[in-house]
User: What shape does this take?
Amino acid sequence: QVQLVESGGGLVQAGGSLRLSCAASVNIISINAMGWYRQAPGKQRELVATITSGGVTNDADSVKGRFTISRDNAKNTVYLQMNSLKPEDTAVYYCNAFVAGVRPGVAYEYWGQGTQVTVSS
Assistant: This one.
């Protein structure tokens, strides 16, 4: 089992910045990929950004150029730096971990409890 704890959410004005943190209970080099997802009221959970154990990143089109995902292996922590925030970024942000099993086609996913981000106009 992998436990994930998010922090850093809060209230910020449009155009401001915020950095989210996700602390894992295991060495994150053993996790194939980690990412951030978000869910606004009445909407489905959507991908924000991912980073593999090799450092390859991928960002959703809606956040490209504004958000940056990174990791600190020594601290077993993944970060999401959010700049130029917009009201439409308001959502609960969730940390995710993807772990491949020993058998082909077998994998496991873990989720944190989420942290609220609110961007005012």
User: Anything to note?
Assistant: DSSP finds no helices and eleven strands in the chain. The mean pLDDT is 96. Residues 27 and 74 are 8 Å apart (CA to CA). The two ends are 40 Å apart (CA to CA).
